[in-house]
Structure formats: C-alpha cells, structure tokens
Amino acid sequence: MGKKLTLEVNDLKKIEAIIRPEKLNVRRAALDSRGFSGMMITEVKGRGRQKGITLQ
Asked: How far is residue 44's CA from residue 27's CA, in Å, rounded to a whole number?
C-alpha cells in the first residue's frame, strides 16, 4: 500500500498572479515584507477580448 500523506503547517502553496510590469516592484516589496521572498517571474505578452489596455 502507499504511504499516508499528512499536512503540515509548512506545506508549500503555489500562487499565480498576473501583474502589470509597472506594479511589479511594489507587489514584490509587499510580499517580501511579509516573508514571501521566493518567486519566479515570467514575462508574457498578449491581449484578450478588450484588445489590450492603454495606460494614460
């Protein structure tokens, strides 16, 4: 039979977020100040139904 899995307080959680590039440093600092210093950042490009946004 397989091993029994138990949950512990230190289990990892995966969070995925889409963040605008101009907001990344603010979000990174907020997460780091709360003890979440490890992250992977991937640059993506594309547009959805609204045909992109225009920053003013």
From this structure: 17
pTM: 0.55
For residue 24, is it within any domain?
yes
Residue 48 lies in a domain: no
The tally of domains found in the chain comes to 1
Question: Rounded mean pLDDT of 9-27?
Answer: 84
Question: Which sign, positive or negative, has the C-alpha torsion 26, 28, 30, 32?
Answer: negative
* SS3 labels along the chain: CCCCCCCCCCCCCCCCCCCCHHHHHHHHHHHHHCCCCCCCCCCCCCCCCCCCCCCC
Closest of 9, 11, 29 to residue 19, by C-alpha: 29
